[in-house]
Amino acid sequence: MALGPHLRRSTLLAAALALAATAAASPAHADRCEDIAKELKNQIDGLKISVNTGNMIYLTHPAAKELSLGCRGRNYSNELYAKTDRKPKPQFFELIASAGAIIFTIPKPDVATGSSRCIKRMGIFRGDRVSMRFRRLNMECTRTKTEASIVVTRGKDE
């Protein structure tokens, strides 16, 4: 017994809707985050991907003590976190500039300028925690007696 044209159309429509719902439920941002991490690994010498835990991908590089890429937080679309010695070396600023340019798709000199300003502003007058905004990037720098760190994010609405 053959199905009528009306019944076939509704069956195809139901199958298409089920397929669309399945595709929409899958987390697409995790794939994008992994793609960014692979691009970082391919374009920055010495960078290695160590651990992938959901929305956070931990990376390693000789210029940084800690390095991670965060994807899709509550208030940000991407996040770059890096920690180094209290007095950062030029290789650290180069790493932040290269990674930030790839992650946030802005010119490398802009990320280099913003990150160096943020870290260099910490001191007696401004304290050990500095928050600033530079070229649509939010930067927060902190330091302790032995380490300095920077978090670079971009808001979801930008």
Automatic annotation (TrEMBL):
Keywords: Signal
Signal peptide interval: 1-30
Protein name: Uncharacterized protein
Species this protein is from: Bradyrhizobium archetypum
